[in-house]
Design a protein that fits this description.
By secondary structure, the chain is mainly α. The protein has helices spanning 2-28, 33-56, 64-92, 97-120. The chain starts with a helix and ends in a 14-residue tail after the last helix.
């Protein structure tokens, strides 16, 4: 599981870097920030999905269309978890903004990993062996 988590982190970091690069490039080219962010998220999401499907969880046997739908829900839920935790930490004023951002992002990454591993890219469990007394 540690190897999966490290792979997940690597793919996530690359997708995040891609998201930021595309967003900044589009904004620098005259795009509105909100539109640029949607395009950047979409491209980074596809790269993230392909990376997680083929590298983080290569032994999953989930049909691709189902995994894609599920991972989209995971990505949106992960973003929501991040935003809610960040808002809560900022609202309480218990930690500095940068610490709040790192903590919220870290928690969202753990959440996304767990849900991706156990639901979006779940590997089928072997059929239960029925033990019969002879």
């Amino acid at each position: 599981m540690l190897v999966q988590f490290l792979r997940f982190g690597l793919v996530g970091a690359l997708a995040t870097l891609l998201h930021m690069t595309i967003g900044v490039t589009l904004i620098g080219s005259g795009w509105e920030a909100l539109s640029a962010n949607v395009i950047a998220f979409f491209v980074a999401f596809l790269v993230s999905f392909l990376g997680h499907s083929g590298f983080s969880f290569p032994d999953h046997d989930m049909p691709m269309a189902r995994a894609l739908r599920r991972f989209l829900l995971v990505a949106v839920a992960g973003f929501a978890v991040n935003e809610m935790l960040l808002a809560l930490l900022l609202w309480t004023g218990m930690v500095a903004q940068a610490v709040a951002l790192v903590a919220a992002t870290g928690c969202a990454a753990l959440f996304s990993f767990a849900v991706s591993r156990n639901w979006a890219f779940r590997k089928a469990q072997p059929a239960a062996q029925v033990w019969r007394a002879s």
